[in-house]
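Below is one such record:
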Amino acid sequence: MKKLQQRNGFRTNEQVVYPAHGVGRIVSIEEEEIAKAKLELFVINFEKDKMTVRVPTEKSDRVGMRKLSADKVVQKALKTLKGKAHIERNAMWNRCGPEYEAKINCGSLVSIAEVVRDLHRSETQPEQSYSERQLYEAALDRMADEIAAVQKLDEASAILKIEEVLLSKSERTAQPAH
């Protein structure tokens, strides 16, 4: 087994986004023999989930693996939270739910921010259903993980930052017009 330090623009010990699982760290790049074929793999550790994923280096593009977002993208995602929610109140949840799940797992920080924005509820709004709450938590968690990694924060601080933006939006919309 040969150990490599870099492949396809990714390095060992670098944090990356793997769309289906969020932010992980490449712990090694290894060459293994599987069914008599040599296969080069990124070994990615997701510490929070206590999980390790092996991704063939040649499939990293196809699975959507990418570097952490630039700060400009983080700012765009935070700005997205301030926008008006695009949720159809009478839309069928069995259609919306899978769409939101697809956005969470697509790997785009801005798409994940759209889900957080759309499913966020202030104190004055009606309760969420269990499945809405689950998707909201998943999107919030995924967004916070990447913001924390990019801005060198702990996850709690990143969640606080997101919630402050959401709260400032609800305060603006709750103020009566003069």
Summary: The helical segments are 71-81, 93-105, 109-119, 130-151, 155-174. The chain has two domains: 3-67, 71-174. Strands lie at 3-4, 6-7, 10-11, 15-18, 22-34, 37-46, 51-56, 66-67.
